[in-house]
Structure formats: structure tokens, C-alpha cells
Write a structure and sequence with these properties.
The chain is an alpha/beta fold and 427 residues long. The chain has helices at 54-72, 92-105, 125-134, 148-153, 160-173, 191-202, 221-227, 236-252, 271-277, 312-322, 334-345, 354-360, 366-370, 374-381, 396-399, 402-425; strands at residues 25-32, 76-84, 113-118, 138-144, 178-184, 208-213, 256-259, 262-264, 283-285, 290-294, 303-308, 326-331, 352-353, 385-388, 391-394. The relative contact order is 0.11.
Length: 427
């Protein structure tokens, strides 16, 4: 069960929704694509505007919310995530208005998880309290590092002291519901410096930590500096040791690694992100947002992958003209769905259950796909993968090399699917 505060009128759980089909339950993500500056490592769809017409942007986010909820015939929104860009740059009034719109178009139960991503510089103490009053009940803070030299290298516009001040205020306002992001594998970083930074953070963080290995993306200034030889990247074995050390340290501090990059204690898992990894339908609102849902009323039952127009100005024009700014719609086949479940489901420590897999392909079980594969058996013997009565999942050791495992597993899935299709066609 997931959040809405009292003023929205949902004081009691609506018993009539207890039996709503899972296909009609959706998380919703709303993108605020603007940032104060572009970080040196980031290639996300974000924009550094001189002047944002927030009223126009707000109206368009509200209109697209109404349109896409209507198109999907969603009966209940199970979580809301304000991502970016930097959504903490938006006014609390914008967040409040969007949540009001969602609650008018679908059911938002009291206690629904509503998350806002925030950067330390744009989330001053007074604004955090205003976001809380607007309905936000979970904060995700992009700390990235507690080393000022690393922050400068990453192009962040906050210091370690700024980050810690924001973290303290967030913990006061959202106790047990404050998450922090850290990046490892930075140029010049050592295992020792990484461990010291992580331990410093753990001495004062809340109950959720996300760790991300730095990825050099083409077109970013950091990519250029590294490939021109100005910055030395740590060796791959060193980065692997950083990750392994973090796994042990977090486990010893009471955190459960419930996903490749995410750790939680005291049950503080991100319900919204779990929905993604479990392959649930979801609605994406705003420039560059992604969504996955079955479009109602068109006579089809295939789930669609939807991508909203990237550029904010063009997206707003499309929303004003058509009610939404969907740039691309792609029907997902049964094989597409299975590939997504495999790629996303194995990110979680619990993996993929037989029941979940069979909901998509009732006659094409995990046993049938992977049970007789010599390559999969070898991965099991190496202690990287488990296939048993619970389903398919990675060991902790396997999570660290998931991308490599997926090369084998996706190839096996495609091969098994081709054999199934050949048998079905009688050729």
C-alpha cells in the first residue's frame, strides 16, 4: 500500500478497490527536466534554461497526467515518483497541483509512496518542509560523494557540507524515508578512499542507499577528459573490489541488498522502483518520460512502450495541441515482455518467481527455457545463478556480474523461443 495526505480526501482505504486487477494498478513517474547546470558525467535528458515558464510547464504536466490516466483507464496509482532533471527546482505548488490532479483522476490511497529527487543545493530546509506539506513523503538526495574534490570533478554545485546539512534536515522531516545516492569508480579513486567515504556516509544516513558505478557516456565532458588522457580511471578489478567492499560493509551495517544498486534496512525498500523491476505497468509524464501500459479502447491487449517528446518546448506544444506529448509508441510482443522481465527481474535479490514468469507465458516455463541449458548449468555450478522451486535469481556474487550473465540468459531465451515458434508452426 502506498501515500496521500489528508487534504486530498482519502482518509479511509477504499474497500471497493481490494479486488482491482493488477493490470489496472500503476506507478506514475513525473519528469521535471530542468537543472541548474549539467554535471560532467550526465547525459540524461535535461536542460539548463534561462527562464522557465513554470506556470505553462505545470499546466502541461497536469494535462498530460489527465490524458494518459484516461487512456490507460487506471483505477489506482500505487506510487508517484518526481524525477529529473532536478524536480526539487520546481515549486512545491507545482508538485501539489500535480498530486491533486492524480487524485482526481484515479485512486490514491492514504500512505501511497510519493518520492521527490532532490539535489542538496536546490533543497533548502524551508523548501523540504514545503514539499512535505505538498504531499511528498519520501526524499531521494543526489549526494554522489562526500569528497569535495570528487564533487568538483563531477561538476556538482554543492559541497560535502551542503549535502550533510540537507541530509540532516531530510531525516528530520522524512525519518525512515530518506534515500541517498553515491557514485563509485571515479577517476583517481582508490578502494581506501571509497570505503572511507561510504563509512562516513553510513554513520549519518537514513535507511536507504543507492550505489552507482560511474559510466562514461559519450558526449559528456568527463568522457572527453578521460579519453584525452587527462584523468585516470581506476582499473576494472579495483572497481569490482569497491563494489564487493560496499556489499560487505552495508550488510554488516544492517542493510539488505534488494537490488543490484540498492540497499535498505528496516524495510525501507523503494516501492516505486520495485514496480519497475517487477515488470509492472507504469505511466510516464513529462519530457523524455518512459511508460509501459496497455492502451484501453483500441481493441488490443498488447502492452505498449511509450516515450514522450524530449525537448520541453516541443513537448509543451504537443501537449497543448493533443493532450499529451507521446513521441513514440511500440507494441511489446510476448518475447519482448519476457526479455524485460529477465533483464529487470534478475536485478532483484529475490529474482523471478515461476508464477510471475507464467503470467506472461503460461506454456513456456523457466524450467523449459533454462532448465536444460549447459551454459545455465555452468553458471549455477560457478555459484552465480540459482534455478530452483522458487524461480530464477542471482547469488550476491552473480549480482556483481549481472550484465555478463544476461548475455548468456538472453541468448538462451531467444533460442528457446525460436524453437517453440518452429514447433508451433509445424516446420
Amino acid at each position: 500500500m502506498l501515500v496521500l495526505h489528508v487534504k486530498r480526501g482519502f482518509l479511509l482505504y477504499d474497500r471497493a478497490l481490494k479486488d482491482v486487477k493488477p493490470s489496472l494498478l500503476h506507478p506514475l513517474q513525473c519528469i521535471w527536466p530542468f537543472c541548474e547546470k549539467r554535471c560532467s558525467y550526465c547525459n540524461f535528458n535535461k536542460y539548463i534554461p534561462r527562464n522557465v515558464d513554470e506556470l505553462r510547464m505545470r499546466d502541461c504536466l497536469i494535462q498530460e497526467t489527465k490524458t494518459l490516466i484516461q487512456l490507460s483507464q487506471v483505477q489506482r496509482i500505487t506510487s508517484v515518483f518526481f524525477g529529473g532533471g532536478t524536480p526539487s527546482m520546481a515549486s512545491p505548488l507545482t508538485i501539489d497541483n500535480i498530486l491533486d490532479t492524480i487524485s482526481q483522476c484515479a485512486h490514491l490511497a492514504e500512505g501511497t509512496e510519493i518520492t521527490l529527487e532532490a539535489n542538496p543545493t536546490s533543497a533548502e530546509a524551508s523548501r523540504l518542509a514545503e514539499f512535505q506539506r505538498a504531499g511528498v513523503n519520501r526524499l531521494s538526495i543526489g549526494i554522489q560523494s562526500l569528497n569535495d574534490a570528487d564533487l568538483k570533478l563531477l561538476g556538482r554545485n554543492h559541497t560535502a557540507a551542503d549535502a550533510l546539512r540537507t541530509l540532516e534536515e531530510a531525516k528530520r522531516l522524512f525519518p525512515g524515508h530518506t534515500s541517498v545516492d553515491l557514485i563509485f569508480g571515479l577517476p583517481g579513486q582508490t578502494v581506501t578512499s571509497w570505503v572511507q567515504s561510504l563509512q562516513r556516509l553510513l554513520s549519518m544516513c537514513d535507511d536507504h542507499v543507492s550505489l552507482y558505478q560511474l559510466t562514461l557516456e559519450r558526449g559528456t565532458s568527463l568522457f572527453k577528459q578521460v579519453y584525452q588522457g587527462y584523468l585516470p580511471m581506476p582499473d576494472g578489478d579495483v572497481v569490482a573490489e569497491m563494489y564487493e567492499c560496499a556489499q560487505h560493509i552495508l550488510q554488516d551495517t544492517g542493510f539488505r541488498q534488494y537490488e543490484v544498486s540498492n540497499f535498505a534496512r528496516n524495510g525501507a525498500l523503494s516501492a516505486h522502483n520495485l514496480s519497475y523491476w517487477q515488470g509492472n505497468q507504469y505511466i510516464g509524464i513529462g519530457p523524455g518520460a518512459h511508460g509501459r501500459f496497455v492502451l484501453s479502447g483500441d481493441g488490443k491487449r498488447h502492452r505498449e512502450a511509450r516515450i514522450q517528446t524530449l525537448e520541453p518546448d516541443i513537448w509543451m506544444k504537443e501537449v497543448l495541441a493533443f493532450g499529451h506529448g507521446t513521441r513514440k509508441r511500440t507494441a511489446l510482443s510476448e518475447l519482448d515482455r519476457l526479455e524485460e522481465v529477465l533483464v529487470l527481474g534478475l536485478r532483484m535479490d529475490v529474482g523471478i518467481s515461476h508464477q510471475h514468469w507464467l503470467q506472461i507465458a503460461p506454456t513456456f516455463s523457466l524450467w523449459k527455457v533454462f532448465g536444460e541449458s549447459d551454459e545455465v548449468k555452468e553458471l549455477q555450478e560457478q555459484g552465480l545463478l540459482l534455478l530452483d522451486d522458487r524461480g530464477l535469481r542471482c547469488s550476491r556474487k552473480g549480482l556483481a556480474v549481472l550484465d555478463t550473465l544476461l548475455l548468456t540468459l538472453l541468448s538462451q531465451l531467444e533460442q528457446a523461443w525460436a524453437e517453440k515458434e518452429e514447433t508451433s508452426s509445424g516446420t
